[in-house]
Design goal:
73 residues; mainly alpha; 4 helices; 75% helix; 0% strand
């Protein structure tokens, strides 16, 4: 994943954890990622899908951890 996209995703995760909402303002996301709003729009085709993207990433990480745990038992 590109560095800019990684910053956007990680900032979105932090904001979702803090705010508990599915939608965050692009201006808040830009501030949290230390990027401009234009950079957000240039790197994320549909900002409203960030919640689903972050959920998918967390799901894959959890699944990987579970699989690793099952292999050691």
């Amino acid at each position: 994943m590109k560095n800019v996209k990684s910053r956007i995703i990680h900032a979105a995760m932090r904001l979702f954890a803090e705010q508990g909402a599915m939608q965050i303002a692009v201006s808040d996301l830009a501030k949290a990622a230390s990027l401009s709003r234009g950079t957000i729009y240039n790197n994320v085709e549909h900002p409203e899908t960030l919640f689903h993207i972050t959920c998918g990433m967390l799901f894959e990480e959890l699944r990987s951890c579970i699989r690793s745990g099952l292999k050691t038992n």
